[in-house]
Amino acid sequence: MTSSPDPVFEPAFDDNPGWEGSKLYADLGLAQREARDTYRDDVLDGEDDDLTWEPVGPDSWDLLHAGEPTGVSIHTRTIHGTAQPR
After folding, report:
1. For 5, which DSSP code?
2. Cα–Cα distance between 53 and 69 in angstroms, integer?
3. Which of 32, 28, 34, 35 is nearest to 13 (CA)?
4. Alpha helices in 9-57 (DSSP H)
5. How far is the CA of 31 from the CAs of 11, 23, 48, in angstroms?
6. Across all residues in the chain, what is the average pLDDT?
7. Is pLDDT at 67 greater than 90 in this prediction?
């Protein structure tokens, strides 16, 4: 008997496949916090907190800085395996 695969949330940063924030998460809120904080630390040197998430489809979100795209996004994927803990 096989179980149904669990959805996970995968942050990504355009043009940076080795980005520290690219991990799989079982919880959307945690994925958003980690990706936002990593972007803030890596790109904004921890200085700016005007970062918000915008849904761009049923299974994806884009991170905005002062209303402008940052290149950071989160997409829902379905995998067979274990995601980062909640």
Report:
1. P
2. 10
3. 35
4. 28-43
5. 7, 8, 19
6. 84
7. yes
Side-chain-side CA neighbours of residue 51 (13 Å): 23
Burial 24-34 (b: 16+ CB within 10 A, else e): ebeeeebbbeb
Residue 82, classified by CB atoms within 10 Å of its CB into exposed (0-12), middle (13-18) or buried (19+), is: exposed
pLDDT digits (tens, 9 = 90+) for 8-35: 899 988 867 667 667 889 999 999 999 9
Tokens read off for 55: 């849904």
φ, ψ for residue 20, nearest 5 deg: -55, -30
- Work out whether the CA dihedral 9, 77, 43, 52 comes out positive or negative: negative
Q: And the tokens for 44?
A: 């904004």
